[in-house]
Design brief:
Structural class: mainly alpha
Order of helices and strands: HEEH
Distance between the termini: 64 Å
InterPro entries: LapA_dom
Radius of gyration: 29 Å
Strand content: 5-15%
Strand order of the largest sheet: 1-2
Shape: flat
Keywords: Cell membrane, Membrane, Transmembrane, Transmembrane helix
Helix content: 40-55%
Protein name: Putative integral membrane protein
Pfam families: LapA_dom
Number of helices: 2
């Protein structure tokens, strides 16, 4: 018999395992088997740290390339500020608006779910 393709009767071949037996290397779908390649909390933190470092490097390049001063007027306040600082403050303000709108929507949905659970 060839060693490249095991016959169905050889041990370890997929056909030799019975229907109620799962091979040790195959996941059963219940999540109880440990998958050595599954991401852990530590690997997630490591990935987030690397992503943050990349973002900070890109941000530093942005700030260093946009140092010219621009005139800024906001609700009667007028002044000059570096272009990079002006754009970063505007972006942070926009992100804060989006985050607060998202948080309000999440609170609204939680209240609706809580109200629906009380009805049951």
């Amino acid at each position: 018999m060839s060693t490249e393709h095991p016959s169905p009767t050889e041990p370890g071949s997929p056909a030799s395992a019975s229907a109620d037996e799962a091979p040790a290397t195959r996941s059963t779908g219940s999540g109880s088997a440990k998958d050595p390649l599954r991401g852990s909390r530590t690997s997630g933190i490591w990935s987030a740290t690397v992503a943050l470092i990349v973002v900070l490097i890109l941000l530093a390049v942005f700030i260093l390339q946009n140092t010219q001063r621009v005139e800024v007027s906001y609700f009667g306040w007028t002044g000059q500020a570096p272009l990079s600082a002006t754009l970063l403050i505007a972006a942070a303000g926009g992100a804060l608006l989006v985050a607060s709108a998202g948080a309000l929507r999440i609170l609204q949905l939680r209240r609706r779910v809580k109200k629906d659970r009380k009805r049951r």
